[in-house]
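Practice record 12: protein with S-adenosylmethionine.
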Amino acid sequence: MGQKKLIKFAAIKQYENVLENPQGMPGKWNSFFEKLASGPYPISLDELSVIKNNTSTNQSAIKPLTLELACGRGEYTVGLARLLPAQNFIGLDIKGNRIWKGASIANKEGLPNVAFVRTQIDQITQYFDTNEVAEIWITFPDPQLRLSKAKKRLTHPKFLRLYQQFLQPGGIVHLKTDSPNLYLFTKTVIELYGLTVITATDNLYETAFMQSDNWNQKLAIKTYYEGLNIASSNRIHYIQFKIDQDLPIEKDEILKEMIAEFEVTETHDAKRERGIKANEN
Ligand SMILES: C[S@@+](CC[C@H](N)C(=O)[O-])C[C@H]1O[C@@H](n2cnc3c(N)ncnc32)[C@H](O)[C@@H]1O
């Protein structure tokens, strides 16, 4: 492993705003962020209070919690935290050296509402309690184009069932991607399982709603992978939806048949995937 990576790994072990596979955290995030803002340090996870979102007597003290999945360097986590200081934000990714970047920026700017969890997304239900999360952003995830890898797509029903376990009723999922195939796949999932689409566009920056100040600010945050333009599509695709229905396992077979029809062999998406491999660090 390179020297730079080792330095970053050592740094995040010291950061209060980075947790690696933390145990016993469901229900404790509001309390964690209160301690992150005020100390004492180091924060003892065992001593944090568990707050049940629907039953706490002091609901006004509970700040909305938003997750960024596959956050990489955490541009959305940090960007949203700057825009919305009264809310809390957690970026999750497996790569510690990428998380280091966002966590370092948050520390430098003194953002008390930003944290990162280093973990596999497959493990995500270990970390959050029922109703603890208000929103999820999925930003430029690997499109996992091969049919054999479809279950690794972060908008596959297998993952949506995990998110449903801790999302509040009516909680929103945002997907931002440059992959036309991942966009089409996600739309297919939403339609097949009867979920509610709030917004969907295959060319985000050309849409009328981007003229609105609020949307501009959130959706105009650019991530590292957005900047790479690996797909060369020059079109950012965006879907905002709710996981407001059960996702019966029986429908997964129908989904498999549907997506087999548009499995790609060598589109610019496939080139993108190879590009990612070449750029992996
Ligand atoms: C293409 S990068 C996008 C990073 C960032 N969101 C951006 O737009 O710059 C995909 C990220 O997903 C992370 N990732 C992929 N599969 C994951 C998994 N199962 N669990 C956690 N992180 C994962 C990778 O480590 C990588 O940082």
